[in-house]
Amino acid sequence: MGKRLRRNIKATIFIIILLSISMDSRAYFGQNEDYLLTDVKPDGRGKMHYLEFVSQETYTVKAGDTLWDIAQDYWGSGTYYQKLISDNEDVVDVPEQLMPGTELQLEKTLYTKVGIGDYISQDQFGYELIVDEEAFGLEDIYGKRQFHSPYRIYASVPYENDLKEADPYVHWDTFKDEVKRCGTDICGDLVSDLSFERYQVTGIGSLCGYQFTFDAGDREYIILAYFCYNSTTQSEAFALCDKELCTESTLALARGKTFYAAVRFLDPGVYYVKAQDYVGAQDWNYPQLRNPFVNAMQRLYSGPLKKVEDYPNDYVIEWKEPELEKLVREELSGLWQLTKEEKQAFMERDITAGDLAAIEEMELSYYSVDNDSEEEYLRVRLNKSADNGTDITLRPPVKARLLGSLDDLRHFRGLKSLDITLRTPCITDLSCMEYLTDLQVLSMDIYSADTQVKDVDFLGKLPNLRTLRMGGWYWKKEYNEYFEGITDLSILRACPHLAYLTLKTGNVESYDFLADLPEIHYLYLSRIWGEKNVVPDESLLPNARFIEIYGEQVRFENGDGYDPPYNLR
Description:
Elements: H1 3-23, E1 51-60, H2 67-75, H3 81-87, E2 103-112, E3 129-131, E4 151-155, E5 159-160, H4 172-187, E6 191-201, E7 205-215, E8 220-229, E9 233-242, H5 248-264, H6 292-299, H7 322-335, H8 340-348, H9 353-356, E10 361-367, E11 376-382, E12 390-394, E13 417-423, E14 441-446, E15 467-471, E16 500-503, E17 522-525, E18 546-549, E19 552-556
Helix pairs in contact: 2-3
């Protein structure tokens, strides 16, 4: 998320807090321990100044069950077993000898001593409450991995449920089965101690979630994931806990804060429009929710990337750009966690298509020679590598070019996400991307002058595309010329699953093709000064939830929200 958006979010939250304080003189500035969940209702506090979570479940005992395990599975802590006994005295005679088939009542009400009308102190949420960042990101602004606290809390600014997805609370058994399947399919045996819990939050909506232990190789994490729903909106909150550093009381505090954060941000007047599918959306049946298993594997797992052993029709890669090959080798050796000897052997052998087959994400940034600098800068990042990418900075001979083309991209046939940032007058041919038929996300931010792309016909070969961004700018002329020559984007009819479309093209003559893209629910068109800037007919997008055209919000279903972050324009 861009810094400008983050500032806007915090400013809006602060305004809401001030309004709450001005309307209720009893506003409470909570202490750290007030986020702990307790079964005692706070005395003398108005409804805006505490939260009430009500759980009413039934469970049929199976062979081998214990009260401790049942309490752990349903409420996240085995210590609630005594309440199970007291609530089920009529059917539990001997707690140590549970009879299979016994139906237990699992009723529980929990409270926090702070509510949605109370002040949020950032430093009470781990290092800070991280709003709407990619879940479980540990890098600071310098790309270094940081963990300042035994836990960190991540919360999202609420999103409208624009896919009209069912509340997991209502479809609870289905949701639990899907979570179990997804965790196993994505993480294998790296996930353990998976447990679930759900509540009705009095006067607000429903809350459901789960927690699990994730083995990241060099350390273990306990991850808490909670989702809060009302009739139109949803919000999410996650806790990332270092298992080695977290005591039982620390975990209890992290759990309470995660509950609070999920509910606190469920405000239909303050939500953000989604401009891209969540990471992992394609891997499970709840694409409107973040997938913590995918996030954990991408951001936390330090094990080696699985190499493809038996790639069909494998072949040796013949590189056209030796410096790109060099960076790819460095990235692969890091992802595979090669020893010094293994890396040396790898550097001396050919790269084959099978070596690249497991690469699903690539970020490529290239800044070439211009009149202001003799330096060229090339950066490649594969599968969100932990070292934040490898870069090369050279001073080549006059008129030499570090990259002459992007043709080597055609060898990354397994890519699902490609993010390209270019500032160069020497690359105009993007046709190599037609080989990347599995692409779901394509972002092209181009910074160029006096150079135009030849065509974008390659987009017609990307049938799985969900997110497309075509943009960029050149600071000397205040607008981008790279896509200036593109007047026809009807080729996008070949991308029937396109849902998020961000364009800065300017000379497109007709947007009639949008009528053949029924899954579009986000459209952002940015003005090119002095160009045609044709305005599409809003009726072409009956299913869109958000439309912004040349600075004007044409449609935003809830009537309020945030502009896209700067880096999406």
